[in-house]
C-alpha cells in the first residue's frame, strides 16, 4: 500500500498530458506567418485545419512534428498559392512520421509542390498540386514527392504541370499510389529505386510519359522492384517533353504509355493503354554510362499481361521513327523492348496478344544502330509480387 501511495504521489506532480487540439488557420492577412506558426505549434495528435480561400504565401512551409494531420476544406477550396514565393524551395516540406495531408491545393511553387523526406507512414489524400501556367521547363520538378521513406499512401491526388514527375516516389518501400489523376507533366507517375509498390486505379493522360518504373545508379538505395502496375487508364500521353536538359526524364519520348527500365519484378497488367504515338509499353535497359559496380542496368523478370491495347506506334518520338512506321505498315508494334540482353536470362514475358518490337540494341548503343524486328518475349512468367498492405490507421485516415 505504501509503495502504491508513493507512486500516486509522484505522478501527481507531473504535468497532465495535453489533449489533441485543432489549430484553425482561416484565410486572410499574414497567412504566411499564421500558417507556419500553426505547423510549428502543433503537437503529436493535433490537427492543423486550414480554412477555405486562397492563401498567398511568399516562402515554403515545413512540418517536423509526428502524428499531425494537415487538413483543408478541399483541393478546390483551400488553395496555398506560391506564385509570390521568393525562395526556390518546395511549397511544403514534411520530415516527420505518421502525417496525414488532405483536402488542399498547392499552386505554382518555385520548387517541388509537396516533398516528404524520411517521413514514414505518410498519407496524401485528396491533394491537388498544379502549375497554373501550363507545362514549362521552369515549373517545379515534382508535384508530390515522398523520398527515403517507408509505408506511403497516395490516394486521390491530382498533379498538373510538373517538369519532371507529377507523382514521384523514390528510394522508398511499401508504397500505394491509387485513384489519382496526372496530366501535362513530363512523367505522370514515377516509381524510382523503390521496392514493393502498387500503382492502380489511376488515370494518366497528356503527359509525355504516363507511368515510369526504373532504377538509376549511384543512389543510396538500389535494386528496386516488386512493383505492380494495374487497373490504370493510360492514354494519349502526347505532351512534348519539357524537362530541363540533363534530367533522365528528358530522354522519355513523347507518346509513351508505361516505361520500365533497369528494374526487377515489375508486373504491368489489366491496364487500358491507347493513343500513344511511340508505344503503349517500353521495356529497356539503362543506356547511359555509369560507374556504380552495384548497379544492374537491365530489366529483369518483367511481365506484361492482360492489358487492353488501343492505337499506338503511329508517330514514334525517337530517331528513325519514320522508318519504323514505314517498316511496319504505318504503325510500330505497341510493346517495345530495346533488345539488350538475353530474353531467357532476363526473364522477360509478354502475354498480351499484340506484336512486340525489339530494337536490337546493346546497352549504350545509339538508336541509329537499331535493327528492329518483331520478337516474342516468352520467358517463364515470374511470380506476381504480393499486394501491398498498409496499416489500418492509414487506411482509416484516407476514408
Automatic annotation (TrEMBL):
Keywords: Signal. It comes from the Bacteria. Residues 89-214 form the Right handed beta helix domain. InterPro entries: Beta_helix (IPR039448), PbH1 (IPR006626), Pectin_lyas_fold (IPR012334), Pectin_lyase_fold/virulence (IPR011050), SO_2930-like_dom (IPR022442). Residues 1-20 form the signal peptide. It holds the Pfam family Beta_helix. This is Parallel beta-helix domain-containing protein. It comes from Sphingomonas plantiphila.
